[in-house]
Amino acid sequence: MRLRRFDNIKAFHSIVQDYLLQSEAEHNLLLGILHTLLHYPERYPELPYLAVVETSGKILAVAIRTPPYKLVLSKALNLAAIQLIAQNLQDLGESLPGVSGLVAEVAVFLQAWQALTGQSYRRVMEMRIHQLTQVESVATAGGHLRLATEADRSLLVEWCTAFASEIGEVVIDVPEKMVDGGLKRQSIYLWDDGMPVSWASGSQSLPTAARIGPVYTPPQYRRKGYATACVAALSQKLLDQGCEHCFLFTDLANPTSNHIYQQIGYRPVCDWHDFAFHSEM
């Protein structure tokens, strides 16, 4: 078993793509990050950590980190590969804000990292990956879906900042950068009911599939069906454009959103855990 690191994103992509696509739902985040690194490298200006653990030419696990964000782990065919990734990061002197991945893989990494560094950790969020292949008919709210434009920029920056504040984690390093990137890629959509009332981002960032998220509705517009309508309409739009399915993450602590997305047609695939590290005082 050996670990290989890559500095060239194209070379890394050619090595890992087939492995990641074998479990497309579980790897939709990693595939989306790879798509961004390939096509919009300015989104992640710092050198990413790109690693593969393999044996006899067979991939056992993949890891990606795009600073300042957390390490993201793939499904591992051998959990010992996760320990090797932790050891490599520690050898490099990497300071990690946290780790995100499938439940078993994250649990192994947490134990290995704590043993190597002495850092403790806390759970940030337990999530579930959902997949949709057909949008179910749901009661829709008044309004319509539209593509966000430059005229919406200041509102989007405000909403993006509020979203990051609610999450309480570094999910968005610079809201202006995220908004400008989304406007450039035409991946930000608004539900407009005389005024913008809900926001969902979505685009085809996988070969035959799309990822949706984040989804945000300001508090004053919640419980009116706007997010449901926005996600349903955007999901249908992406399917109409040729995507075979759509993926999204839900927060298991929010049963309302989980129920809403399942009404639209999203079906649970697997659970995903997100943890943060902090130094012992």
Structural class call reads alpha+beta
Instruction: Please state how the strands of the largest beta sheet are arranged side by side.
Output: 1-2-3-4-5-12-6-11-10-9-8-7
Number of domains: 2
The number of distinct helices, counting runs of at least 4 residues, comes to 8
Write the layout of secondary structure elements.
Blueprint: E1 2-5, H1 9-21, H2 28-39, E2 49-55, E3 58-65, E4 71-73, H3 80-91, E5 98-102, H4 103-117, E6 120-132, E7 144-147, H5 153-167, H6 175-185, E8 188-192, E9 196-203, E10 209-216, H7 226-240, E11 245-251, H8 255-264, E12 267-278
Parallel strand pairs: 4-5, 10-11
Antiparallel strand pairs: 1-2, 2-3, 3-4, 5-12, 6-11, 6-12, 7-8, 8-9, 9-10
Helix pairs in contact: 1-2, 3-4, 5-6
Protein name: GNAT family N-acetyltransferase
Pfam family, one: Acetyltransf_1
InterPro entries: Acyl_CoA_acyltransferase, GNAT_dom
